[in-house]
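pipeline stage [seq->struct] | target=Methyltransferase | organism=Paenibacillus alba | residues=169
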Amino acid sequence: MSRKWERMVSKNSKKINKDRSKKGIAPISTDPDRPEVFKGRSIMLALFFILISIFLLATLTKTDGDTMYWYTTSAYLVVGVFIYFVRRPYLKVSKTSLSKRGLARELVLTPSHIKEIVYSPGQVIIDLNGKSPRWVYTKTLNRFDVAAMAGRLKKFAEQNQISFVDKTV
């Protein structure tokens, strides 16, 4: 296909996908190698900030409660809600790499850095080569769809010759 034709197809598919999303219909796929993103929830960190906010409210008993105290208490509550609803952890699985959200940037793994992928009931563990910490995704702690994630990671492991261990069988 010529580049002009590819640009036309891309432009038209974006327009159609935008219209379909407004109608609530699933978008058409123009890129079969598009990365698949699995999103979870950061329950522990959000709960930590909300508990700090509650603690600050509980210790307000005999103080005057100046405005800065109220700003601090409400800021902890807002940060906890923000982390729970907006800053969600994810695993992005593309054809040749895995990536996740780090503290300040996106961390990307190529197949050469992955030793094995282990799927056990309720969790997926990605073991890395060297001294790097392993990536653990759980259903109970981070609310990930572990079964769907394991299916996509199995396909990723087959494409990139990585060992995939299924402990559910």
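stage status: PASS
auto-comment: The longest helix spans residues 3-23. The mean pLDDT is 87.
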